[in-house]
Amino acid sequence: MKLEPLPDLLQPAPPGTRLPKRERTRRLLIASAIEVFSARGVAATSLPEIAAAAGVTIGTVYNHFRSKAEIVSAVAVEIAETIRARSAPGRAQLKTATEQMAAGCRRYLGLAETTPRWALLILDVASIDPDFRKTITGFVATELRKGLRSGEFTVDDAAAAVDLVIGASMEGMRNIALGTARKGHATRVTEAILRALGVPAAEARRAASDPLPLF
Question: For the whole model, what pTM was predicted?
Fold first, then answer.
């Protein structure tokens, strides 16, 4: 099954010349994997095809990744980090931790709306890959701490709250991507997450509904 082309704003940045050669090659392989996955689908893609798209030998691929599963994982982590990095300037314009948490949740829920097959790929990786889970957990924990310090969030257990945010967001993504959710589900899920973090109903509804800042 082919994947939709990844939106331009979520495409990893081209390998930079200032990076060490090994890191440039690794980033090139990830970008090439995204290109081939989009054209052929993950299941139909082989490592030699990724090597050909990158213009390197299969040996070079194995120098960086032991299997296709590792490349799939790297692609998902790269997308997660790209979403955070490219949305950072817009998030910085938001005035409250509530707004920042809402924007973060809606970015992922929105990915399920615009590119559902990529969203399902990310969800599959999240269920099995510890590196990806660590990346996402770190993002959410950072936003949660901001809200706890400002007094906007009230939770009894921070770790449980992180699990709640991630779990609700990912289940919302899955339902949206599979087409089983009603229109506006992303907004409702985001509002429910904020309410669970102790945000008053009116503020949660506003933050979940406000236009997202541009990348």
Answer: 0.81
Query: In degrees to the nearest 10, what's the CA dihedral of 20, 23, 25, 26?
Result: 180
| Number of domain units in the chain | 2
Asked if residues 120 and 50 have their Cβ atoms less than 8 Å apart, the reply is: no
Q: Residues 6 or more apart from 120 whose CB is under 8 A from it?
A: 174, 177, 178
- My answer on whether 196 and 153 are in the same domain is yes
Alpha-helical regions (H) of 41-157: 47-54, 58-64, 68-92, 97-114, 116-128, 130-150
d(CA 139, CA 65): 25
- The 8-class DSSP code of residue 96 comes to S
Q: What number of other Cβ atoms are within 10 A of residue 127's Cβ? A: 10
Higher-confidence position of 114 and 39 = 114
**Dist. CA 170–CA 200, nearest whole Å:** 23
The boundaries of the domain holding residue 174 are 84-209
Residue 39 lies in a domain: yes
